[in-house]
Amino acid sequence: MKRHAQPALGTLVEISISDAVDAVLDDGRLQAAFHAGFTAVHTIHGLMSFHSPDSDISRYNRAAVGSVIDIHPLEHWAMQAHGAFIIPLSFLACCLLFQRMRRAHRALRNHYSGWSMLLTLLALTMLCPVLLR
């Protein structure tokens, strides 16, 4: 399996090509496949980066309410894919976290650290308005 990684989208993006595909492609076409994949990732990164003043996200933030903005076709696809993945993943993570918390509570683990964390968060919630005056 061939793997290449580059920083993009706020993380390290890795593209892997299986051995079956690697056996069919010569080195030139393999490198072209990696290049095409990273070009698409960097295009999305350029469109979705709020650090870049000419990105679509920066244009959204500067636009007036109700104005119409043209977007890149890949951005619509990226937003749809993000929405399709984040909803089931967040549901799964919440279900697993809840089960883990119930198991730890029944096993009488982390009681002191859990209660101290909750009391600290409660104190910060109550004190923040006072401290920020």
Give a written overview of the molecule:
The chain is mainly α and 133 residues long. It folds into 2 domains: 1-67, no CATH class; 72-133. Helices cover 68% and strands 11% of the residues. The protein has 5 helices and 2 strands. It has helices at residues 19-24, 27-48, 56-62, 73-106, 111-131, and strands at 2-8, 11-17. A two-stranded antiparallel ribbon has the order 1-2. Strand 1 and strand 2 form a beta hairpin. The longest helix has 34 residues, at 73-106. It starts with a strand and ends with a helix.
Explain briefly what this protein structure is:
The protein is mainly alpha-helical and 133 residues long. It is 68% helix and 11% strand.
Give the SSE order as H and E letters. Answer: EEHHHHH
The share of residues in extended strands comes to 5-15%
End-to-end Cα distance, whole Å, is: 58 Å
Basic shape: flat
Task: Report Rg.
Answer: 23 Å
DSSP summary: helix tally: 5
Average pLDDT for all residues: 82
Low-confidence parts, pLDDT < 50 over ≥5 residues?
Answer: none
User: What is the number of E strands?
Assistant: 2
Helix coverage percent = 55-70%
Structural class: mainly alpha
Please give the largest β-sheet: 2 strands, antiparallel
Number of domains: 2
The strand line-up of the biggest sheet is 1-2
